[in-house]
Amino acid sequence: RRRRVSVDGLRISANAHLIMPYHLLLDLAGEQKLGKLEIGTTRRGIGPCYADKAARLGIRMQDLLDPKILRKKISAALEPKRLTLRPHAKDPRLDLHAMVEEYVTYGHRLEQYIADTSRLATEYLDAGRTVLFEGAQGAMLDIDHGTYPFVTSSNPVAGAACIGSGVGPKDIDEIWGIAKAYVTRVGAGPFPTELEGELADELRARGREYGTTTGRPRRIGWLDLVALRYAARINTLTALVMTKLDVLSGLDPVCVCTAYRSAEGADLDHFPYHQTVLHHVTPHLVELPGWDDDIGDCRTLDELPEAARGYLEFVSEFLGVPVALVGVGPGRDQVIWARREAAIAG
């Protein structure tokens, strides 16, 4: 509202879990305890919140609407955490009465937006309207299919859209995957194509690659087509959106990874399931021609330099997925709708 953005259409699932003050403290304590083995979380309490959800100790949006239930649930959630939270015993954020009062106030402010969002989405679908589900993080951070334990606490893969939204798998018509023209990662974990030195610094500066939540500089590397093909498979992508193609302008050659070599010298054209193997692979890089042109004003595929089109075609052919949208700058209008023309066929 302060930014003059209407929130009239905002609806929040009554079943959505809340990150509570004690989750933040637990997240920080957990990372500090791991020391050099830390996962590199955002320390925003996400992991402990999911842990409470699995333990049936979570606080949900609907709980904010009943002070008595809220108090009982917060008290029950705090009980098994007393020992871990002992160093923070005097932290005012852990005062039960104050916490209940604060979150009941939130409930009063948000009550008009809390709804059965599953029913709402189903009604829109039944009426023939378009419903878009947007995932967060990425496939390689999926708790089941990603680079465990260096992952998030949920399932960002496409299949989880049904679980999170409460609609059925048959309601999903298209699945678009989004990938940068290079690879970034925040925090620890394997990164076969990681770059260091001046080139990494240049790409990071061009792409403004700093964590949205933490502000930490992102690790950066060449596009990993082995990992991207794996992501395309587990998400059954129907189209690919490639962003930040403009960041590669001025580089020649531009490299992509098409295979790994294991520590034992074996060539791997698939994403290895064993983390020990993944942590010790080296990338097989293919050099593609670069381009010098500023592509920020391009709005059709034909306006792109030949080398830039060749880069997109190489990626699409390798993945077997058509490119539907290309980002050529930070502006919302700096996109090429390849699907409107004819998607670059995979």
Mean pLDDT: 92
- Kindly provide the radius of gyration, computed on alpha-carbon positions and rounded to a whole number of angstroms: 23 Å
CATH architectural type of the largest domain: Alpha-Beta Complex
H/E series, N to C?
EHHHHEHHEEEHEEHEEEHEHEEH
Main sheet properties: 4 strands, mixed
CATH homologous group name of the largest domain: Adenylosuccinate Synthetase, subunit A, domain 3
Shape: globular
Topology, number of strands:
13
Return the structural class: alpha/beta
- Uncertain regions spanning at least 5 consecutive residues: none
Summarize the structure.
It contains eleven helices and 13 strands. With 346 residues, it is α/β, with parallel strands linked by helices.
